[in-house]
């Protein structure tokens, strides 16, 4: 990658002191409300906001500059901003010469990417692109915040690197309140990624690194495979081809959360054996051979790692509900029954083993995080943790500029499916809705799927606000209530992902980023129509 | 670093130095002197509405009473926080507030956590010598999580200010005049139909029993709850919160100013989205599918079946035909063991989680 590690470079407490926030493909007031509050604090402190989003979200309404970018064309916007920064001599020459490599290549590449040309693809006025580049480059403390609007594309990794180019060009990284910050979606995305990757052991130690594997082999008393394993999308691909026979799913609902629902279901049906461990009967669990009832966060001890890399305690507050068991206990017992002994007395004992095998977590223990969490990297018991990353040096040494030309989404709107469907989260619900849709206060505000339609598109099709309409793509169709307004850009429709009865992932495309294998939930061709009668 | 100029002042006989820009309240608190407040919340701008933070400041022959929460310190200030004049004034201020507040602590859910009750106790204020005119009551609103009783409102404005300053949702404001003044939604509208996002921040800052968690009404008093500090299970921000538990039931969720990273703030999901834990739909027993139908099983039956089936498939096709999908919803410890299970027990690197989707 550009810096050599992927994570928020700054802390949540630094947000309020930002002088400029460039928010692209993220809607913190809804998806990360408390980060949203910190940004609102920054706004009150006079921070300048530039917001790029196809929807006129809360921060777009309060921004100095709102860039209504067409989904899938972020690359044009970002490269054109790089063009302006270099063309107008706004780059940080000292930073570029001491801390980066590949500048000349980028300079030559973006030379031809003019704001005028970018304007045609993105739908943003060229002058606004220039203005955004100037504001971003000139501010004393500029930070970029992005979320899944950047990454849920077939060019997601490219987008992230193009964002990093801007930070490297201007030197807006490695300082307090200044950096590049992806905000993680789920409570423990950071921790799950730290623990569980098919090509990495804990803390991003590669499975192809012999020294790492020998350390784990010695600790675990087994021989380990050095071949990187299959990612979730690859597992589904292999199920589809009958090259995969058993799956153990813990706390996940791929039928709802994976794109192209029909193909996900077909793949699961091909399995000889499916075990699902969850707290509710999920859509995926319906296809299971065995369901193991697990506990919620309120019934167990452990740790979550938040978006700013802070390892924090989760504490048991109530007794186990019914005959449920904590996930770690179920997995341990299963392992022991399969002939590999796992005897842990508590999550604390497991955490000590993790810290022992993971350099970035080595200095963290339950005792140290009793009061407040600690941010990794924390290499030893004396280390206070790391508030912001990349001060003075990147993990990979020099920051690298990437030359990344535009790649079109896997499926763009066309004659048959003329609208662009994009998806996301809302304030009131959470992902598959398993928890929030069982919460009274939340369903009071919203409990019905909706589709945001631009008023001009609605007028053309004779669709009224509040009317139930049909939404179709090449993969399927669902119905939902139309919310007609000027919020979403013309030619784009937007839907939330929380509602099993109007599962938007019946519509989304199973096309993935070539590196991270993140699915393109943000762009596919769609059409909407009135329901006759 | 910009050097902040220092200010020298005297509080209750102690000469201290604090940064310019601090209020008297902050300066006093920095040396452990407690000044009572009702309308103050460190998350909000000073408002000086309740007047109980009044202190006496030396001004030659005529000392002045000023509110400490919104007065910045100046060089050479001499302040008394506990003079007779201060204490008498506070007592009267409390009587004024209590003239428009019901004396029904025996049935109020806030009893034990009410700032007004604490102050009335501290200053021995039992009755108000002022004219009392009871007004207000529980406001009808169909929302299931926030309950407002305007009769208990002391007009400190904390709810109004947290909604506008912190949330910037501007859903509630002051209404009417005089005794009839209250806070609330415009034109008798409901929370569902306004910009209210049901975050409950107003509840979190209310110093009395005027705004409360509806689900906690009648569920117990403050001292009966066990507060368990934990981390929210929704988004990646990882707010520190407290599950308030009575018996084996979560009654409400609260946070505390100064908590990392949320400084006492919570959103609608974190504060009110906990009822899924006790939902009747929870899976409570292992299930095995027999002839297309799920049947309840014991843990032994279920675990033995899974162990033998996974073992068989591994033996028949090889470990790489088996995979484990773990979850961003589970703890680090759960994920670590899922990873170890795939690698050490099954013998495959086919382990992934939902972070990429």
Q: Which pair of protein chains has the largest interface, and what are the residue counts?
A: A-B, 141 and 113 residues
Q: Please compute the radius of gyration of chain A using only Cα atoms.
A: 24 Å
- Biggest β-sheet of chain A: count, sense, barrel? 6 strands, mixed, barrel
State the assembly state of the protein chains: heterodimer
Describe this structure in words.
Chain A has 3 domains: 12-183, Dimethylsulfoxide Reductase, domain 2 (3-Layer(aba) Sandwich); 189-375, Rossmann fold (3-Layer(aba) Sandwich), CATH 3.40.50; 419-530, Barwin-like endoglucanases. Chain A is built from 19 helices and 21 strands. Chain A has helices at 28-31, 33-44, 58-61, 74-87, 93-99, 103-110, 115-122, 126-138, 148-151, 156-170, 189-195, 210-220, 232-240, 254-257, 261-269, 327-337, 347-357, 440-445, 455-461, and strands at 20-24, 48-52, 65-67, 100-101, 142-146, 179-182, 200-201, 205-206, 246-250, 273-278, 290-293, 302-305, 310-314, 374-375, 399-400, 419-424, 450-454, 468-473, 476-485, 492-496, 524-530. In chain A, strand 2, helix 3 (58-61) and strand 3 (65-67) form a beta-alpha-beta unit. In chain A, helix 4 packs antiparallel against helix 7 and helix 4 crosses helix 8 (126-138). The radius of gyration of chain A is 24 Å and the shape is globular. By secondary structure, chain B is of the alpha+beta class. Among the domains of chain B are: 6-82, Roll (Ubiquitin-like (UB roll)); 225-282, N-terminal domain of TfIIb; 287-356, no CATH class. Helix content of chain B is 23%, strand content 20%. Chain B has helices at 24-30, 84-98, 115-122, 158-166, 201-205, 268-272, 299-317, 332-346, and strands spanning 6-11, 14-19, 54-57, 64-67, 78-80, 146-148, 173-175, 182-184, 211-213, 226-231, 240-246, 249-254, 287-290, 293-296, 322-326, 351-353. In chain B, the strands form 6 sheets. Chain B has a 5-stranded mixed beta sheet with strand order 2-1-5-3-4, with helices on one face. A 3-stranded antiparallel beta sheet of chain B has the order 10-11-12. The longest helix of chain B has 19 residues, at 299-317. Classes of the chains: A alpha/beta (533), B alpha+beta (357). The interface between A and B is large, with 141 and 113 residues. Strand 11 (290-293) of chain A pairs antiparallel with strand 13 (287-290) of chain B.
């Amino acid at each position: 990658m550009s810096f050599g590690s992927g994570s928020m470079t700054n802390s949540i407490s630094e947000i309020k002191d930002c002088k400029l926030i460039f928010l692209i493909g993220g809607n913190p007031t809804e998806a990360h409300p408390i980060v949203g509050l910190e940004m609102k604090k920054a706004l009150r402190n006079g921070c300048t906001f530039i917001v790029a989003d196809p929807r006129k979200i809360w921060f777009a309404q309060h921004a100095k500059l709102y860039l209504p970018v067409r989904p899938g064309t972020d690359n044009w916007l970002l490269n054109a901003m790089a063009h302006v920064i270099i063309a107008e001599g706004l780059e940080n020459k000292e930073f570029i010469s001491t801390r980066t490599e590949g500048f000349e290549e980028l300079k030559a590449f973006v030379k031809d990417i003019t704001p005028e040309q970018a304007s045609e693809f993105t739908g943003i006025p060229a002058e606004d692109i220039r203005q955004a580049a100037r504001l971003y480059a000139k501010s004393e403390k500029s930070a970029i915040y992005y979320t899944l609007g950047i990454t849920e594309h077939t060019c997601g990794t490219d987008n992230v690197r193009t964002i990093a180019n801007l930070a490297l060009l201007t030197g807006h990284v490695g300082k307090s309140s200044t950096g590049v910050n992806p905000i993680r979606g789920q409570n423990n995305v950071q921790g799950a990624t730290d623990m569980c990757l098919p090509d990495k052991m804990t803390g991003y130690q590669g499975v192809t690194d012999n020294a790492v594997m020998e350390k784990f082999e010695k600790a675990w008393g087994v021989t380990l495979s050095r071949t990187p394993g299959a990612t979730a999308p690859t597992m589904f691909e292999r199920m589809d081809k009958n090259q995969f026979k058993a799956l153990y799913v813990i706390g996940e609902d791929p039928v709802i959360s994976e794109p192209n629902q029909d193909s996900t279901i077909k793949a699961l049906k091909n399995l000889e054996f499916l075990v699902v461990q969850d707290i509710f009967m999920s859509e995926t669990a319906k296809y299971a051979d065995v369901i193991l009832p697990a506990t919620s966060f309120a019934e167990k001890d452990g740790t979550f790692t938040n978006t700013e890399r802070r390892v924090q305690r989760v504490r048991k507050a109530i007794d186990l509900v019914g005959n449920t068991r904590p996930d770690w206990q179920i997995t341990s017992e299963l392992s022991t029954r399969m002939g590999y002994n796992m005897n842990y007395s508590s999550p604390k004992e497991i955490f000590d083993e993790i810290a022992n095998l993971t350099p970035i977590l080595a200095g963290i223990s339950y005792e140290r995080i009793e009061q407040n969490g600690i941010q990794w990297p924390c290499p030893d018991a004396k280390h206070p943790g790391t508030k912001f990353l990349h001060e003075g040096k990147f993990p990979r040494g020099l920051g690298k500029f990437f030359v990344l030309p535009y790649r079109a989404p896997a499926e763009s709107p066309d004659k048959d499916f003329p609208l662009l469907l994009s998806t996301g989260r809302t304030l009131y619900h959470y992902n598959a809705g398993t928890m929030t849709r069982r919460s009274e206060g939340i369903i009071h505000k919203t409990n019905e799927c909706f589709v945001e339609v631009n008023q001009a598109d609605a007028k053309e099709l004779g669709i009224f606000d509040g009317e139930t309409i049909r939404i179709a793509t090449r993969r399927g169709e669902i119905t939902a209530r139309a919310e007609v307004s000027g919020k979403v850009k013309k030619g784009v429709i937007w839907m939330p992902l929380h509602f099993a009865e109007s599962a938007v992932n019946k519509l989304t495309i199973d096309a993935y980023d070539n590196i991270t294998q993140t699915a393109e939930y943000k762009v596919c061709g769609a059409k909407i129509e009135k329901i006759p009668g | 670093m910009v050097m902040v100029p220092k200010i020298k002042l005297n509080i209750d006989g102690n000469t201290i130095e604090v940064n310019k820009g601090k209020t008297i309240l902050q300066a006093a608190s920095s040396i452990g002197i407690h000044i009572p407040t009702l309308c103050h919340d460190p998350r909000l701008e000073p408002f000086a509405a309740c007047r109980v933070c009044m202190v006496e400041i030396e001004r030659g022959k005529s000392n002045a009473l000023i509110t400490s929460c919104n007065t910045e310190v100046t060089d050479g200030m001499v302040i008394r926080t506990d003079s007779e004049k201060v204490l008498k004034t506070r007592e009267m201020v409390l009587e004024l507030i209590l003239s428009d507040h019901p004396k029904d602590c025996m049935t109020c859910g806030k009893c034990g956590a009410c700032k007004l009750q604490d102050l009335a106790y501290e200053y021995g204020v039992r009755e108000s010598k002022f004219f009392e005119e009871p007004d207000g009551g529980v406001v009808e609103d169909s929302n299931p999580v926030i309950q407002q009783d305007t009769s208990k409102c002391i007009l400190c404005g904390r709810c109004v200010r947290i909604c506008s300053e912190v949330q910037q949702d501007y859903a509630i404001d002051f209404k009417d005049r005089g005794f009839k003044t209250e806070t609330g939604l415009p034109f008798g509208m409901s929370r569902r139909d306004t910009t209210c996002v049901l975050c409950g921040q107003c509840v979190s800052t209310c110093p009395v029993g005027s705004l409360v968690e509806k689900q906690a009404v009648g569920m117990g008093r403050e001292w009966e709850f066990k507060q368990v500090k934990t981390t929210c299970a929704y988004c990646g921000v990882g707010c520190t919160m407290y599950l308030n538990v009575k018996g084996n039931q979560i009654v409400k969720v609260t946070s505390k100013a100064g908590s990392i990273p949320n400084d006492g703030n919570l959103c609608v999901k974190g504060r009110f989205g906990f009822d899924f834990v006790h939902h009747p739909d929870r899976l409570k027993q292992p299930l095995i599918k027999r002839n297309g139908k799920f049947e309840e099983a014991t843990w032994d039956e279920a675990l033995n079946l899974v162990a033998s089936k996974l073992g068989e498939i591994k033996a028949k096709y090889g470990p790489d035909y088996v995979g484990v999908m773990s979850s961003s919803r589970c703890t680090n410890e759960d994920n670590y063991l899922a990873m170890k299970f795939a690698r050490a027990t099954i013998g495959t690197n086919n382990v992934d989680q939902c972070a990429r989707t």
